[in-house]
């Protein structure tokens, strides 16, 4: 699951010409550390939903990579 | 282009469906009932018209029935036409809450949910999609008995303008077509006298042409309208 999230995040980063990340830390902030803007976060949500059938933003904001893992593990 | 269209079985929705198919689009049509007119189109345009019976009064079911069972992410959506509407005519002092809620579910709540997932489909597929809402002249010119209905259309117009601002950066457009009174089932409850009084308030003194409305919708969906967003386009015989 974590590999798939890394792949999705790198795909979204590619839109902004950001180099792919080699790994994610649970504490990484999606905006400040990973460099995603609100459109990128929308794309991230849509791609995660397509892969896992879970809408991570449905019940409030998600700020970190660890919070995504937690939502998907619920 | 792949277009999702609600309220496709009759009236202006059926006309929009025809025009879109004539232009070579693939139409994913939704309505409560399946009509013989729609069945004929399915034969003529085999493989280009897909129908699913869905009642938009069931807002909770919209995501599952429309986007999980019908238009999934594997179908890149280029356009969404929000045409289905429930007419609720009465004077304000007779306003009934459950009728009002039912109308708002069909006319406002479900369309907003449909826009949410239509935009998500467009983001997933990276399509610069076009959204078109069908409003009503009653949101701009007052008519006795249409206050509740008109309020639901006013809500859509405000939502469309803000959709345009929010998603324009991704190339996603949102516009509204504002038809005048047409000769459809929606206005069938009006008497001839009422209709004539309504038509006499227009510059052209007659019912709005349904085909003109449908072709305007098709234009706004097309690339020819690529710089048009956040607009209300009145197709109303000059109700000014």
From TrEMBL, chain A:
Top-rank taxon, per record: Bacteria
InterPro entries from the UniProt entry: ACP-like_sf, PP-bd_ACP
Pfam families with a match to the protein in the record: PP-binding
All copies of domain Carrier, residue ranges: 1-74
Name by which UniProt lists this protein: Acyl carrier protein
Species this protein is from: Flavobacterium granuli
From TrEMBL, chain B:
Source organism of this protein record: Flavobacterium granuli
Name by which UniProt lists this protein: 3-oxoacyl-[acyl-carrier protein] reductase
GO MF, any single term: oxidoreductase activity, acting on the CH-OH group of donors, NAD or NADP as acceptor
UniProt cross-references to InterPro entries, sorted A to Z: NAD(P)-bd_dom_sf, Sc_DH/Rdtase_CS, SDR_fam
A GO biological process held by the record: fatty acid elongation
Family named by the database record: Belongs to the short-chain dehydrogenases/reductases (SDR) family.
Pfam families, alphabetized: adh_short_C2 (PF13561)
